[in-house]
Structure formats: structure tokens, C-alpha cells
Amino acid sequence: MAKATKKQALGRGLSALLKDPENDIQSASDKNADKVVGNIIELDLEHIEVNPFQPRSNFNDETLQELATSIKELGVIQPITVRKLGFNKYQLVSGERRYRASKLIGLEVIPAYIRIANDQESLEMALVENIQRQDLDPIEIALSYQRLIDEINLTQEKLSDRVGKKRSTIANYLRLLKLDPIIQTGMRDGFLSMGHGRALVNIDKKQDQISLYEKIISQSLSVRDTENAVKTYHIESNPVEKSKKKIANVQGFVKEGITELTDRLSVKVDIKATDKSKGKITIPFHSEAEFERIKKLITGA
């Protein structure tokens, strides 16, 4: 308990240091920067602004209230991270839920780590930190990956190294952004899993995506059901594939018929069929006697 009290006292002392204009810190080389950067400091909530680069946009009211209740009882256990903007002015890098919950219960100060970073570094820190969270939905993760690629100019390979994820995993998330916005919203609201989304993205036409999405919701289709529905969609919408399926069906009964007739007549029967289930049967014979034998088997005479 003594350690906690000492740390809190240190945080208040450094907080007072930061409120002194003569000791203002703008870079890592400034006086007292080593005392501030990386240490836990109590900052006034009113001097902290929300990070415009924050990739997380959905905050569940119920879970936020639960966090606020926890903070009211136990305090902010994990400090937030901020970057210094100017004298007595800071911007969130990570910890917006803790920040919002603290404001919700009327706290005036919050423990924070102070970083000195430019906009690009701030964006990257915020995005990478949020990607590592367990409660982000697939679309939030996909948007975070896309922003790192677009705004930090990272390739998928470099992004893979930066966030510790396989390149194929990143590619699968990014493909979700090809879904219709209505479906993306459904995923964010928990109506669809990432597996459903990965199946639906294989349909190019947005309207057809939505039609299957509505079927998934109304019939509670599983991921496997959805994958099969997408396969059926491609067969039905592709004349070549549809024709192949018909031929395959025809060949199925033809194959059984060849075996049955060959066994019955004791000759190698040949059957040819079209995609309309039409065709012809060829029964070979090599002598008059064999012809008479086959005729009797067919006519029963």
C-alpha cells in the first residue's frame, strides 16, 4: 500500500511540475523530460482531448457504465496514454473507455503515461494499440489495418510484422471492407460473424450480398450454410457452371445405368447423354448368336 501511495504522490508532484510554464516540455531533449515521459502522472481530465485518429467508434453504454462503476470503487487501475500537444494540453493515444468512464462519474484527474509523438506516430500507436484489443469487432479491426496501410504507408508485409499477425489474416480482414455498408453494420452490431462475412464477400454484386445477408438473419444460417449458399449462388448465376452441374447430374445416372446394363447383357454398353438428359445407348455384338442372345434378354422372348 505504501508503494501505491508513493506512486500517487509522485504523480501529483510531476503534475504540478507540468503546470509550471517555465518547465514546459515539448521534446524529449527538454529539461525534466526524462522525469515526465514514461512515468505515471495525474492529469486534469479537462486538459485532455479525444484523439481524432481513434479507430474505435462504438462504445457500448452498458459496458461503459460497468467500467465507470468499477473505477468509482477501485480507481483507474491501468493508466491511459496521452501525447503532449502544448502547455497543459494533451491528446489521448489509448484508453478512451477509461477516459469516458472517468468523466461519466465526475472524476477530475486521471493517471496517465505521457508520450511525445508527432501525428503519424500518434496514429500508429493508437491503431496498433487498439488492434491488440480483444473486444474490437472485425470491421473496426479491418478499418484500423486499412488506415495503417493508407496513412502510415505500410505494406501488408510490414503491417504483418508491426502488429504480429499473419499476412493472410490481415488480408482476410481487409476483404471485409468490400462488403456492402449495410452488412458491415450488421457485423459491427453482432448479427454476423467474421466467418459469415468472409463467405459473403465472395459475391461481387452488393444487392446479391444483401439478399443473402437477409436470408442469413431470417433463417439463422450457420457459417457452413452460408458458404454452401454462396457456392449455389455462383452455380446458378454462371451459365457455364450451371451447365456443368446439369451434365454432372446426367452423368451420375448414366454411370449407374452403364454398370447395370453391362452386368445384365454381359457386353460393354456405351451411353451418351446431353445436358437435357437426352442421349443414346449403344450395345455392341460380334456375332449373330450374340445378337440373338442380347435380343432375348431385352425382349424376354
Question: Brief overview, please?
Answer:
The protein contains 14 helices and 7 strands. With 301 residues, the protein is an alpha/beta fold.
Explain this structure to me?
The chain has 301 residues and is of the alpha/beta class. It has three domains: 2-117, Conserved hypothetical protein from pyrococcus furiosus pfu- 392566-001, ParB domain (Alpha-Beta Complex); 190-237; 247-299. It has helices at 2-18, 33-36, 61-74, 96-104, 119-131, 138-151, 156-163, 167-175, 181-188, 194-200, 206-219, 223-237, 239-265, 288-299; strands at residues 40-44, 48-49, 80-86, 89-94, 109-115, 270-273, 279-282. The N and C termini lie far apart (106 Å).
SSE topology:
Elements: H1 2-18, H2 33-36, E1 40-44, E2 48-49, H3 61-74, E3 80-86, E4 89-94, H4 96-104, E5 109-115, H5 119-131, H6 138-151, H7 156-163, H8 167-175, H9 181-188, H10 194-200, H11 206-219, H12 223-237, H13 239-265, E6 270-273, E7 279-282, H14 288-299
Parallel strand pairs: 2-4, 3-5
Antiparallel strand pairs: 1-5, 3-4, 6-7
Helix pairs in contact: 3-4, 5-6, 6-8, 10-12, 12-13
